[in-house]
Write a structure and sequence with these properties.
Elements lengths: L2 H10 L14 E3 L2 E3 L5 E4 L2 H4 L8 H13 L12 H13 L6 E5 L2 H16 L3 E5 L8 H5 L7 H4 L9 E4 L14 E6 L15 H12 L2 E5 L13 H5 L5 E4 L10 E5 L1 H4 L18 H16 L6 H12 L7 E5 L2 E5 L3 H14 L1 E2 L9 E4 L7 H21 L2
Bound molecules: pyridoxal-5'-phosphate.
Pyridoxal-5'-phosphate (PLP) binds next to helix 5.
C-alpha cells in the first residue's frame, strides 16, 4: 500500500478502533480479494456474513447496473410502486414460513432491529423488551440497549442513558424463560448467537422460548441478520430449528453486497405502523431500488444454484480439515458460520498477524476473543476450502511454535 494512502486513510477516514486491518483492496472475486501489489487473500469473513453469493457475482452486478440505469432513488420509502422492492418482497415471503408475509425495507441491520422493536411496542402496547446475554444487534441507541448484560456493559456504559425497561436473560437457560411475563412486549434473539462466538441453541430451547412468548402474549423476534440467506445451511436458521418467530430481522447478505435491511411480520402486526400515529416508522433510502435489485438477484442465485444445500457439507469439510490441530480446542458451527476455538486470546491476537502474512482474512468475535471466524462466501469450492485450510494449518503450526 502506498504510504500516502495509508496516512490519508488514518487521518480522514473515521476509525472504529486503534488497530484497523489496514489491507488495501484492489479487487474482489468469489471468495478471494487482491491488494494492489497482487497479494491474494482468502476472505473467510465475507464482510461478516454479507457476501454469501461471492464477490463480484455477475448476476448481482448485472442487476445493479441495469437498475442504476433505469432509476435510483425517486421518493421516500413506501409511496411509489418500485418493482425491485415488490418482486423481492414477494419472493422472500414465498421462501419464509407462512405468516411472515409483509416486508418493511430499511438500510441496515441496526435499523431493522430498531423497526422491529418499535413494532413490538406498538402492537402489544407494552414496554419491556428482553434480549439475551452476549447478543449483538447493532450500534444505534435502541439496538445497543439490547446488547445483553453484563458483557455488553463495556460498550453501553459510555453511552447511557439508553432505552429503559430492557433486560437480558441467559441464552439456552430454561429457568430464565419465566422472566418473560405479561409485561414483556418482545424477546429478541439470534437463533444462533453470532458475536458470542457461534453459540448454538440447545435441543428444544427455541421451541420453549416460542411457547413462553405465546403464553404471555409477547412477540418473538428473530435476528437473522447474520444467520439468514443460507449461512447456517437452511435459507433461514428458523427453518433449521423449526421455530417461526412473529418478526424476523434481515440485513447483511439480504442486500447481495449492497446496503439493505428489513423486518418481516404478518400483516395484522405490521399494519399497526400505519396509524395512531400515521407514519409510525419512516425512512428516506430504505428499500433503495438498486439494493433491492441486488438482493433479489442474490436470492434468485442462491435458489437456482441450490447453494444452500451444500453449505453444511462445506462447513463439515473445514471441520474435518482443522479439528485435529493441536491448537484447536473445539469448533462450533452452524453450516458455514464457524468459530474455531483456541482457548487463548494471546494466541488469537498473534494468529491474526500470521494470517495476514499467509493470505487469510479472518477475525474474532465481539464477545469471544479466543476463537477465530470462518464464514466465507457460500460459493467457496471444495478446492478452495482445502487450500485455505492448508494455509490456516501452516499459520497454526507457526503459532504453536511461537506461543507454546
Ligand atoms: C446478529 C446481528 N444483528 C445486527 C447487526 C447489525 O447490523 P448492521 O451493522 O448492518 O447495523 C449485526 C452486525 O454485525 C449482527 O451480527
Amino acid at each position: 500500500m502506498k504510504e500516502i494512502l495509508r496516512r490519508q486513510f488514518l487521518q480522514h477516514v473515521a476509525q472504529t478502533s486503534p488497530s484497523p486491518m489496514l489491507v488495501e483492496v484492489e479487487r474482489a472475486e468469489g471468495c478471494v480479494f487482491y491488494t494492489p501489489e497482487g497479494k491474494r487473500y482468502y476472505d473467510l469473513i465475507a464482510g461478516v456474513s454479507v457476501s454469501n453469493v461471492g464477490h463480484g457475482n455477475p448476476r448481482v452486478v448485472k442487476a445493479v447496473q441495469e437498475q442504476a440505469a433505469r432509476y435510483m432513488h425517486v421518493m421516500v420509502y413506501g409511496e411509489l410502486v418500485e418493482s425491485p422492492q415488490v418482486r423481492y418482497a414477494k419472493l422472500l415471503a414465498e421462501q419464509l414460513p407462512e405468516g411472515l408475509e409483509c416486508v418493511y425495507f430499511l438500510n441496515s441491520g441496526a435499523e431493522a432491529v430498531e423497526g422491529a422493536l418499535k413494532l413490538a411496542k406498538r402492537y402489544t402496547g407494552r414496554t419491556e423488551m428482553i434480549s439475551m446475554r452476549r447478543a449483538y444487534h447493532g450500534s444505534t441507541h435502541g439496538a445497543m440497549s439490547m446488547m445483553g448484560q453484563p458483557e455488553g456493559e463495556e460498550w453501553k456504559r459510555a453511552f447511557r442513558p439508553l432505552l429503559p425497561d430492557v433486560r437480558a436473560i441467559e441464552y439456552n437457560k430454561r429457568e430464565d424463560l419465566q422472566l418473560i411475563t405479561e409485561r414483556t412486549a418482545c424477546v429478541l434473539v439470534e437463533p444462533v448467537q453470532g458475536e458470542a462466538g457461534v453459540r448454538l441453541p440447545e435441543e428444544g430451547y427455541l421451541q420453549a422460548l416460542r411457547k413462553r412468548c405465546d403464553e404471555v402474549g409477547a412477540l418473538l423476534i428473530f435476528d437473522e441478520i447474520q444467520t439468514g440467506m443460507g449461512r447456517t445451511g437452511t435459507l433461514f436458521a428458523m427453518q433449521r430449528y423449526g421455530v417461526v418467530p412473529d418478526i424476523v430481522c434481515l440485513a447483511k447478505a439480504f442486500g447481495g453486497g449492497m446496503p439493505l435491511g428489513g423486518f418481516v411480520a404478518r400483516h395484522e402486526v405490521m399494519d399497526t405502523l400505519q396509524s395512531n400515529p400515521v407514519l409510525g416508522h419512516i425512512t428516506t433510502f430504505g428499500g433503495h431500488p438498486v439494493c433491492c435489485a441486488a438482493g433479489l438477484a442474490a436470492l434468485e442465485y442462491l435458489l437456482e444454484e441450490r447453494l444452500v444445500e451444500d453449505v453444511d457439507r462445506k462447513g463439515a469439510l473445514y471441520e474435518e480439515l482443522l479439528s485435529d490441530h493441536a491448537t484447536v480446542v473445539e469448533i462450533r458451527r452452524a453450516g458455514l458460520l464457524m468459530a474455531v476455538e483456541l482457548g487463548r486470546s494471546d494466541r488469537l491476537y498473534r494468529l491474526m498477524e500470521i494470517f495476514k502474512e499467509v493470505g487469510i482474512l479472518s477475525d474474532w468475535f465481539l464477545f469471544c476473543d479466543t476463537a477465530f471466524r470462518i464464514s466465507p462466501p457460500l460459493t467457496i469450492s471444495d478446492e478452495e476450502i482445502r487450500d485455505s485450510a492448508a494455509l490456516i494449518r501452516t499459520a497454526l503450526d507457526r503459532l504453536q511454535a511461537e506461543l507454546p
